[in-house]
Amino acid sequence: MLLCNGSNANRILNISGSLFSSTSSSPIINGISLTVNGASEIDGTFTLNSNTGVKTFIGNVEITTNGSFISTAITTGSNLIFRNGIKNDGILFRANSATFNSNNQSIDGLTDINFNGIITVTGITLTNNTLIGSVLKSV
């Protein structure tokens, strides 16, 4: 398990390539800024557990068969940014608030994608291509 702790946004984890979270890992990101420049493949449980710091996913985020993406602790939309869409074929995707910007994007997959807070879409088109009804509470 990877545990990244911090208490202010000055702590930065910058991944220049892709992020892979396997079924045997359960990374928890607390109180730091995170940027993933490549694609993110989540096959384990990936948790963003703090509203402190900006978490930016520049590449596509794909939750695979055994994966779970949990970011319900992020209540400020500008602290969770997606720039190339989300695909959920995994167990679950649960988030609070988020921002989609930079590129036209889609949310896809066989499993629902649930946002419980405010979603901001800035200067792009966000398309819902999911087969199951995804919940975008506020856009």
Report on this model:
The protein is mainly beta and 139 residues long. It contains no helices and 18 strands. It has strands spanning 3-4, 12-15, 19-21, 28-29, 33-36, 40-42, 45-48, 55-57, 61-63, 68-71, 80-82, 86-88, 92-95, 98-101, 105-109, 114-122, 126-128, 135-138. The chain is globular, with a radius of gyration of 13 Å. The protein has one domain (3-138).
List the helices and strands and how they pair.
Elements: E1 3-4, E2 12-15, E3 19-21, E4 28-29, E5 33-36, E6 40-42, E7 45-48, E8 55-57, E9 61-63, E10 68-71, E11 80-82, E12 86-88, E13 92-95, E14 98-101, E15 105-109, E16 114-122, E17 126-128, E18 135-138
Parallel strand pairs: 1-4, 2-5, 3-6, 4-7, 5-8, 6-9, 7-10, 8-11, 9-12, 10-13, 11-14, 12-15, 13-16, 14-16, 15-17, 16-18
When the domains are counted, the total is 1
Q: Helix tally?
A: 0
Unreliable runs, pLDDT <50, ≥5 residues?
none
- What is the CA-based Rg, rounded? 13 Å
Beta-strand residue fraction: over 45%
Assign the structural class, choosing from mainly alpha, mainly beta, alpha/beta, alpha+beta, or little secondary structure: mainly beta
Oligomeric status: single chain
Number of strands: 18
Features:
139 residues; mainly beta; 12-stranded parallel β-sheet; 0% helix; globular
Quick summary of this structure?
By secondary structure, this protein is mainly β. It is built from no helices and 18 strands.
